Amino acid sequence: MPAPRAPTRIQRKNRATILEAALDVFSRSGFRGSTVDQIAKAAGLSKPNLLYYFPSKEAIFNELMAGLMDSWLDPLRRLDADGDPLEEILAYVQRKLQMSRDFPRESRLYANEIVQGAPRLHGVIAGELKDLVEEKTALLQSWMDDGRINHAHPKHLLFSIWSLTQHYADFDAQVRLLMGDEDPFDAAPDYLETLYRRMLTPQS
After folding, report:
1. Number of domains in the chain
2. Could you tell me the residue range of the domain that residue 146 belongs to?
3. Which is deepest, 83, 121, 134, 156, by most CB within 10 Å?
């Protein structure tokens, strides 16, 4: 049986264009509120042309989410057991904040899916994400038990980091209206570093 033919440059370009358009549409309207017609229009393609590359809205969404989840988990994967505990956590906070700054649509896409009950992400959350969280919370707990950082519930510590960093992407319109002319990302890195450094630095 002959090997599948590699996609042409035009095919790769069209797939990328469709995924970019879908990211815009899904991040604004969520999965339920989006249609193939909307995605095709945003991509500048006909609906039949789009369906040549992706057979359904679900197929587009699943490909987007597969790439997103890998990027989403990477900052937590990089929490290094051999590093300085406080500096590792602070670096993780900054990586998550940078993701909100650089990838706001991806953050809102993920948030929309979670708000809807994570019907298409349940397996990933219950599997890969849960396994990674268990691994890293055990690491956090070991650092706390050794007195290298202050005690805090390790899972709630992660939840708070996610909440405080992803807020800037998921509530971007509100944040920017309230901040006025000040870019919210100008002061956020120092604010969050100070918050977590004070919280987690052991008292001598």
Report:
1. 2
2. 65-200
3. 121
